[in-house]
Every structure is written in structure tokens, then in C-alpha cells.
From TrEMBL:
Source organism (scientific name): Blastococcus aurantiacus
PANTHER family: ABC TRANSPORTER, ATP-BINDING PROTEIN (PTHR43335:SF4)
GO function term, MF aspect, one: ATP binding
Transmembrane regions listed in the UniProt entry: 599-617
Pfam families: ABC_tran, Peptidase_S15, PepX_C
Similarity-based family: Belongs to the ABC transporter superfamily.
Record InterPro entries: AAA+_ATPase (IPR003593), AB_hydrolase_fold (IPR029058), ABC_transporter-like_ATP-bd (IPR003439), ABC_transporter-like_CS (IPR017871), Galactose-bd-like_sf (IPR008979), P-loop_NTPase (IPR027417), Xaa-Pro-like_dom (IPR000383), Xaa-Pro_dipept_C (IPR013736)
The keyword Protein biosynthesis belongs to this UniProt entry's keyword annotation: no
Name of protein: ABC-2 type transport system ATP-binding protein
Signal peptide, first to last residue: 1-31
């Protein structure tokens, strides 16, 4: 009956890892000046339920008192120390803050009752009584302090329940908590749900036991107390020795098995863990600590904060709380963030959450005029969100909306249907439920990340339904739904539905590692007449990129849940041919994360210091080139202009000398020249990477100098790809765009990916790419944001002929939209077929400029295409013209026109009644180039 030492060691390793998520621990915060603390032990309850609560009161400076109060409740397995940083941050905003260890935790006495209204909730009311007796707390009436309650997970549920049972609580801010503890630990996401809100999820109980999470949850409270270990002595059973003779063995066994849990909570867990089912007794315990049944009592304005990385309490739990509280006419706002029980938020996101909670209390405890969005969520992304140490790296961008769709009379959430295909498929449940599919490791973001976010589906144990590749990106914000036809010989089935993101190369991502358990009963036994089941998939925030597919997988096993031991075979199909998955989408404004005001002040100070230093340097006589700021009036029509540009180096070498030319809108300009001609140096000056010694370069009428804002209209690929080899092509593109700081929707990522044309290779590491593949990704990178001026240096290096042809078409089409393209290349035949205009350079100087036709046509020879029967007559007509000679060659009929204009020669042929199929300059660009360079 006693745990083995090895198991205890494993538990000792597991619990600290999980605690970071369960406690929603915050990052370090600076202590506020003048903060004083008072420790006290507060008696609460009576009779067998009497306890002493270990408390700490944080007080701001004397000149800020009296002040409203905030009670900070901790997460499961924590104590008052877990929220000390949150308390100091809140007292820095001028609040009196009371922290405490809940009964059964920390140095408080008593047993854990899972937020029992008669125990933990009553304890919260006792703490409100304490605040009601203090002169340094603002009082709204006799025995009624002005007080808000905040907390995460276990503490978040306490805030909700406290507001329902104690009307003195004026505002609450619960985080990553539950609506129904029954549905959270025994979920089944089948059946109808209230429509309209983004993450509405079935909240019925008697579903599939969330076995691993329940074990972690129970383990945090089942560790033996220090008092018990003292009684057992140093050679007691924790060390493998005998139990002292004066200790009752049954009492020791009970204490070691249940730890600090109350007997009814312990019995409920042991029953669920042993049988995998929800007994009425266990349901009564869980329902008693669930806000679901008392939401109609909450009148305190509520800020609901929920994490997108949470397989314990998903977004659907907050959605249910929002609907229930708003139905009572109570103000509700909803905030989703990148983090949760599976992966703690980044320090930056944690600071933002603290500010959001403090702002909420400012509005409702101080009547402050603070504008906060009714709904905000992290910007959807197709990239992975867990970092290598299990900490969520997202949250740098936030989407805000004017309302939480479907709440309190608001417009319902907009949904998009994505068609799926797939036939009727058998799904096998193995004996004992082993082996089981692997999706995520509950609570251990670090381990999940170490596995690369990989999932494992067991062959034969799942059915799969897939969409066609998406024509455009789809941003899912909330819980998708799908209708399935299911049959089972036994009339029941345990299944797990999930929505995968499948890249063109076959790589799969399960957003946030979330699955939807389904406990189905009353099913048809006949696959020909199945039962239709409405399934709500996990609520997620995820962007499915263009070209990706959505894959709905329904499996019979998942290692995180209790599974049927008996083998079975189910049949699963889409409810209707051509049916699909309905995904919710929420429109909003994407914003960069604001951070705290102190960081903006610091940034402003650094900028000011920089400006002062710059000004001082100028006053002290630092020589600087005169910057011409005038904007040329024809700048929009002339995207690029070189005027007398020279680049000389200190050793006397002149790379570019007196270079002048201009490029007009819609042109594709080829920059030609042998090695050392100065082409790359010219492009580097254009991009602001180096500065000319003399002259001026203007882009859209603005001087092109390092850091010039106008350069944001330029996309370039010069001197190597610069791709990170350990990342995939797709990740390189996203990382590059993120570094620009511009909104993700401005990237036009789909168009750029289409240019790359790498297919499945786009999701492979760049280190495995050929030179041509790297080249194509780099060109796509240059085209991100669809720049008005595109500059490419040797873009076709490493490309095969079909790819070169495709690139030619892309560049022509790009310029046809009114944009401008500059191409530097040695492949003269491609320049001839791609470019409309050419600048030829040699030894740093321009030696020719004009249209391709003007450069090529300077030799006066044309190739004439006529029918064989008309060849002799055509020669006769042409040679009658003064100075013209003509004759047959291997290429066909060639005429040397001398000084006769081409249109005159062509008119003579047409007037003679000769049908002309071709009349083009015979000399190629290469010929003209070699002649020009040789002359130079």
C-alpha cells in the first residue's frame, strides 16, 4: 500500500516540471518602492472544517492609502509564495493585496476540498471579512470592502465561485480555469452546443477520463505532509523501514494514499483512476467545485483569461463561463493568450497579462477611464508555438476585436465550410487500449517540444478525412465542427477527433496538441445505417496556409485518456458526401504587443540619448555628406534614377564612375556587364548598403541612403541567399518577414511561396537544398510584401531550363502590374527574352542603354520568314532596295539592310504580295554585348 521509493523519486522529478504550468507562474517583477508586508494566520471555518490560513498582506506607500484591495489566489499545488511577484506588481499599481495559502497547501492547515463552497469558498469570504476591518482599505459600506479577486487555474475557479457566493466582491479576473470540473476531467465533445460564440464546446460529463491530467492533479496534493513524516520518523516507510509501533497502519496507509485531500475527494479520484468511469459520488464532488451551476449569481464584472496551449482547461471552458455570466447581464471581457497549462507564457506575455488584469481592476475598482478590447487573442500562425524549453515564444502580436462574437446579443461568429473527402473506414480499438496514439504530454511543454511537437497515430486505429489544398490561407479562431456517421456492434464507442494541418510535403502539425474525446452511446450496430454524431473539435487559434490541407482524424486511442479494455471495431464516415469541417473565423485588428509603459519610457530615453549624441557629433565638426532631402516630382513614374554616381575606395580603385540612367515604372531592366563591371557595387549602393562617393541615387524620388524609409518599397536579392540552413524554406520566409516588423497579412506569403515552387521541399531544412532550390526561396523572399521595386542579382543561377522559363514569366507578369524589376545577370539570352530595357556596363561605366530591340538591332541584319515558294521573289524585292543584300542561310532568309529602315523593307515585301511570318533582328543580345564590350 505504501509507495515505493523509486515512484516517489519519479514523482519528485515530475511535480516541479508540471508546477510551472499548473501554477501559471509569472516571471520576475521588480519590487515596488515603499511596499510593506504583514504576515498573519487567519482562522476560518468551524468544527471539523476549522483551519488556519497562512496569509501575507502587501501594502503600498502610506500616501496611497486607503486603497481598493485585491485578493490573489494561487494555482493547484502552490502557495502564497507562488503569487508573490503578481502581488508586488499589483501593489505597485496602488492596491492593497492579500495573498494566502489555500487549505491543505503551504503552511495552511486542513484538507483539500477542490474549491468546495463550504470550505475554500467560505475561506475566501473570511479573507474579505479581514479586509472589511482595515482602515487602509476603501470601504463601500459597513463590512463591505472594495475588493477584486484574481487567480489562475485553481485560484481562478475560486474567484468565480467567490463572486457567486459573496456579493461583496466587486470585480474578478480568473485565468486558465474551468467552467465544469466534471467536463474538464471527463470530457465528451459530441452533441449540440450553443451556437454563436467561437469556442462553444459541449460541457456534459460522463465522458472519457482524462487519466494523465487527473493523475498529475491528484499527485500534486497527495504528497504526504511534513507532520505525517515527522510522526513516522526518519526510519519510517518513506525510507523503506517499518512503521513505528504506536502508529495505526490503516491511518498511515490512508494518509500516504490521499495525502492532504479530504476523504471524499480522495475516494472520487481513486474510483475514477481504478475504473476510468465517473460515479455519481465523484460527479457530486466535481460539480460542487464547478462555477457552471452558479454563474447566474455572478454580478461582479469579469475578465476571463484563457490560454491557447492548454489540454487541461481549454478555450471552451472560458467560452462557457463567458456565456453563463453574460446571460446575467454582467459585463464580461475575454482574453486568450499564447500559453496555458501545457506551456507557460513568455515573460513578455506574462507582463502583458499582469497589465491587463490591473487595468481591469482599475476600471471596476477605481472607476478609471481605461479602454480595453472586448476580445483579444494571439495572432494566428502556422508556425509551431512551443519553444525548445517548453515556453511559448508567441504573443508578440495580438488581434483585438470589438466584441466576443455571439455573446450577449452580439453577432454570431462567422464560419467557413471546408469540404472534406474520405470513404467509410473501420477503426480498431486494441485489447487493453494498447498501443495508444501519442498526441501531447499533458503539462510538460518541455518534453512535448523536445519531441518536436510530433504525434503518433497507430495504423488501423484511425479514420482520416482530408480537404483539397487550400486556395488561400484560413485562420481558425475557435472550435471547428464536423458531422460524422458512426456505428459500433456494441452500441457504444470511445473515439478521439482532431484536426491536423498538413503541409504540401506531407508534414503534419496538430495545433496545440489538442484532441476532442468522444464518449458515444446509443450507436447503430449497422454500418449501412449509422448514427450521425455532431462533433466539436478542439478550440484552437491557428492559421492554415494556402496550399496546406485540413485533415480530420478520428482515432480509437490516446495515451492521455482512459481507454476501453475490450477490443472493438467501429466504422466512421463523413455524415454526407461532400460534407466538410466548419471553422470559426474572427475579424479583428492585428497589433504589435505593447509591453509595459516602463519599456516605452526606456526606449524613448535611449532614442533621445542617440539623438543628442548625433547632434553633438555634428556640432563638434564630424564631417558628413550633405543629405539631399528634396523629393523629385516625377518620383512615382521613375522608380530608380542614378545621377553621376561614382564609388571610389581609399586605395584609389574606382568601382563605378559617373553612372547615370533611369528606370521607369513597368519596365524590366537588365543590368549587363562582365565580371568587375560594377554591377553588384551599383546594386549595393541602390539598397543603401554602401554609399556613393559622388552623385545621387533616388528611389521613387527619395534619396536612397542607409535606413531611408523609401527602401521599404524595395525587395532585393543580392550576393547570396542568406538563408538559415537549420530552418525550412517556409520558416525562413516567415522569419524574414517577421524581422521587418510589418503585419503578417501584408507579406502576401502565398504569392511568394507560389514563386518558390518547391512543393514538399519547402518544409525541409535548407541545408538539404540544392543551389537552385536555395535560389528560388531567396527570390520568393525578395518578393515578400510585393515590393514596388524588385532587384535581383543573378536570379537564375542554379535553375534548370523549365525553372528559368517559369522565372521569366513571373518577372514579366510582375512588371505588368505596374511594378518595376531590375535584373543583373550573365545569362544574356535570358535577359533578351525577359527584359524590356538594358543598361550595359564595362569597367565601372555605362557604355550603352536602351530597349533590347535598340541594342540588338544596331547591326542592321534581319531574319525574314516567308514561305519556301516565296523565298526567291522576296530576295528579288529586297535587293531592289538601295544598299540591301539578301540570301539564303542555314537560319533561313537573311537580309542586310544597310541604312534602310526595317519598316521600309517590310512594307516593300507586303506591297509585293509576299506573306511575311517573321521579320526580326538576326543579331542576338550576346552578339551586341560582345561587340559593345569589345569596343569599350
Amino acid at each position: 500500500m505504501r509507495p515505493r521509493s523509486g515512484a516517489r523519486r519519479a514523482l519528485a522529478v515530475l511535480l516541479p516540471l508540471v508546477a510551472a504550468a499548473v501554477l501559471a507562474g509569472a516571471g520576475p517583477a521588480a519590487a515596488a518602492d515603499g511596499v510593506r508586508t504583514e504576515d498573519a494566520r487567519v482562522p476560518s471555518g468551524s468544527g471539523a472544517d476549522a483551519v488556519e490560513l497562512d496569509t501575507t498582506l502587501y501594502l503600498p506607500a502610506e500616501d496611497e492609502l486607503p486603497a481598493p484591495a485585491v485578493v490573489m489566489a494561487h494555482g493547484f499545488g502552490g502557495s502564497k509564495q507562488s503569487v508573490a511577484d503578481d502581488a508586488r506588481a499589483m501593489v505597485g499599481r496602488g492596491y492593497v493585496v492579500l495573498t494566502f495559502s489555500a487549505r491543505g497547501f503551504g503552511d495552511s492547515t486542513g484538507q483539500i476540498g477542490l474549491d468546495d463552497p463550504d470550505r475554500e469558498v467560505a475561506d475566501l469570504s473570511t479573507l474579505v471579512d479581514v479586509l472589511a476591518e482595515r482602515d487602509d482599505v476603501v470601504q463601500d459600506g459597513d463590512g463591505d470592502p472594495r475588493v477584486g479577486v484574481g487567480g489562475a487555474s485553481y485560484g481562478g475557479a475560486l474567484a468565480l465561485l467567490g463572486a457567486a457566493y459573496d456579493q461583496r466582491i466587486d470585480a474578478i479576473a480568473p485565468q486558465i480555469t474551468w467552467n465544469s470540473l466534471t467536463s474538464a476531467l471527463f470530457p465528451s465533445q459530441s452533441g449540440a452546443v450553443p451556437g454563436g460564440t467561437p469556442a462553444a464546446t459541449p460541457q456534459g460529463g460522463a465522458g472519457v477520463h482524462k487519466r494523465l491530467w487527473s493523475g498529475i492533479f491528484f499527485g500534486l496534493g497527495a504528497a504526504p505532509s511534513g507532520d505525517l513524516l515527522d510522526v513516522l520518523g526518519g526510519s519510517g516507510p518513506q525510507d523503506g523501514g517499518p512503521v513505528p509501533s504506536d502508529v495505526d497502519v490503516d491511518d498511515v496507509t490512508q494518509a500516504l494514499t490521499c495525502g492532504r485531500f479530504s476523504p471524499e475527494v480522495c475516494a472520487a479520484y481513486q474510483s475514477a483512476a481504478s475504473t476510468g468511469t465517473l460515479t455519481p459520488e465523484a460527479a457530486e464532488v466535481l460539480d460542487r467545485g464547478s462555477p457552471a451551476g452558479v454563474l447566474d449569481r455572478i454580478s461582479a464584472p469579469t475578465l476571463l483569461v484563457q490560454g491557447t496551449q492548454d489540454s487541461l482547461f481549454g478555450l471552451g471552458q472560458a467560452d462557457a463561463n463567458a456565456r453563463g455570466i453574460a446571460a446575467n447581464g454582467t459585463p464580461v471581457q475575454v482574453l486568450w493568450y499564447a500559453g496555458g497549462h501545457d506551456a507557460p507564457a513568455s515573460d513578455g506575455v506574462t507582463d502583458e497579462l499582469r497589465d491587463a488584469v490591473a487595468d481591469w481592476f482599475d476600471v471596476h475598482l477605481r472607476d478609471a477611464d481605461v479602454e480595453r478590447p472586448a476580445f483579444e487573442f494571439p495572432a494566428p500562425t502556422g508556425l509551431g508555438t512551443a519553444g525548445t524549453v517548453g515556453r511559448v515564444q508567441g504573443g508578440t502580436r495580438t488581434v483585438t476585436a470589438g466584441s466576443y462574437p455571439g455573446l450577449d446579443g452580439e453577432e454570431p461568429v462567422r464560419r467557413t465550410d471546408v469540404e472534406l473527402t474520405g470513404s467509410l473506414q473501420p477503426v480498431v480499438n486494441p485489447a487493453g487500449g494498447t498501443p495508444a496514439a501519442l498526441t501531447t504530454v499533458p503539462g510538460l511543454g518541455a518534453l512535448t517540444a523536445a519531441l518536436g511537437g510530433s504525434t503518433l497515430e497507430i495504423p488501423g486505429q484511425s479514420a482520416s478525412f482530408e480537404s483539397a489544398p487550400l486556395d488561400s490561407a484560413v485562420e481558425v479562431v475557435g472550435a471547428p465542427t464536423v458531422a460524422l456517421d458512426v456505428s459500433s456492434a456494441s452500441g457504444s464507442a470511445t473515439l478521439f477527433a482532431k484536426l491536423y494541418d498538413v503541409a504540401p510535403g506531407g508534414g503534419t502539425v496538430l495545433p496545440a496538441g489538442l484532441v476532442a474525446p468522444l464518449q458515444l452511446t446509443g450507436l447503430s450496430a449497422d454500418p449501412a445505417q449509422p448514427t450521425t454524431v455532431e462533433v466539436t473539435l478542439p478550440a484552437i487559434v491557428h492559421r492554415f496556409e494556402a496550399g496546406h490541407t485540413m485533415r480530420v482524424v478520428v482515432s480509437s486511442t490516446d495515451q492521455a485518456f482512459a481507454l476501453p479494455a475490450e477490443p472493438a471495431v467501429y466504422s466512421v464516415a463523413l455524415a454526407d458526401a461532400g460534407a466538410g469541417v466548419s471553422v470559426p473565423q474572427v475579424a479583428g485588428t492585428t497589433e504589435a504587443a505593447g509591453g509595459s509603459a516602463r519599456w516605452w519610457l526606456l526606449l524613448g530615453g535611449l532614442v533621445l540619448l542617440g539623438l543628442l549624441g548625433w547632434a553633438a557629433a555634428r556640432l563638434l565638426g564630424r564631417r558628413r555628406d550633405r543629405l539631399v532631402s528634396a523629393v523629385e516630382p516625377d518620383g512615382e513614374d521613375v522608380p530608380l534614377r542614378f545621377e553621376g554616381v561614382t564609388k571610389a575606395y581609399k586605395d584609389g580603385f574606382v568601382a563605378v564612375r559617373d553612372l547615370s540612367f533611369e528606370v521607369r515604372r513597368g519596365q524590366v531592366l537588365g543590368l549587363l556587364g562582365p565580371n568587375g563591371a560594377g554591377k553588384t557595387t551599383s546594386l549595393r549602393m541602390l539598397m543603401g548598403l554602401i554609399q556613393p562617393t559622388e552623385g545621387r541615387i533616388s528611389v521613387f524620388g527619395h534619396a536612397a541612403r542607409p535606413g531611408a524609409p523609401v527602401l521599404s518599397r524595395l525587395g532585393s536579392f543580392v550576393e547570396g541567399t542568406g538563408l538559415l540552413p537549420h530552418l525550412s524554406g517556409r520558416q525562413n520566409l516567415r522569419l524574414y518577414w517577421a524581422a521587418t516588423g510589418r503585419p503578417a497579412e501584408d507579406a502576401h506569403m502565398e504569392e511568394a511561396i507560389e514563386v518558390a515552387g518547391l512543393g514538399a521541399a519547402l518544409d525541409r531544412p535548407v541545408r538539404r537544398y540544392s543551389q537552385g532550390m536555395r535560389q528560388r526561396v531567396a527570390i520568393a523572399q525578395a518578393m515578400l510584401g510585393l515590393p514596388d521595386l524588385l532587384v535581383l542579382d543573378e536570379p537564375t543561377n542554379g535553375l534548370d531550363p523549365p525553372q528559368i522559363h517559369a522565372m521569366r514569366e513571373v518577372l514579366r507578369s510582375y512588371a505588368a502590374t505596374g511594378r518595376t524589376v531590375i535584373v543583373s545577370s550573365h545569362l544574356l539570352s535570358e535577359i533578351e527574352q525577359t527584359c524590356s530595357h538594358v543598361v550595359v556596363m564595362a569597367k565601372g561605366q555605362k557604355i550603352a542603354q536602351g530597349t533590347v530591340e535598340e541594342i540588338v538591332g544596331a547591326g542592321g541584319a534581319v531574319l525574314v520568314g516567308v514561305a519556301e515558294a516565296d523565298t526567291d521573289r522576296a530576295i528579288a524585292v529586297l535587293t531592289e532596295l538601295p544598299g540591301v543584300s539578301a540570301g539564303r542561310t542555314d537560319d533561313g532568309l537573311v537580309a542586310e539592310l544597310g541604312g534602310v529602315p526595317r519598316d521600309v523593307a517590310l512594307r516593300a515585301l507586303v506591297e509585293a504580295g509576299i506573306a511575311v511570318d517573321q521579320f526580326t533582328p538576326r543579331r542576338r543580345l550576346e552578339d551586341a554585348f560582345l561587340a559593345l564590350v569589345g569596343q569599350s
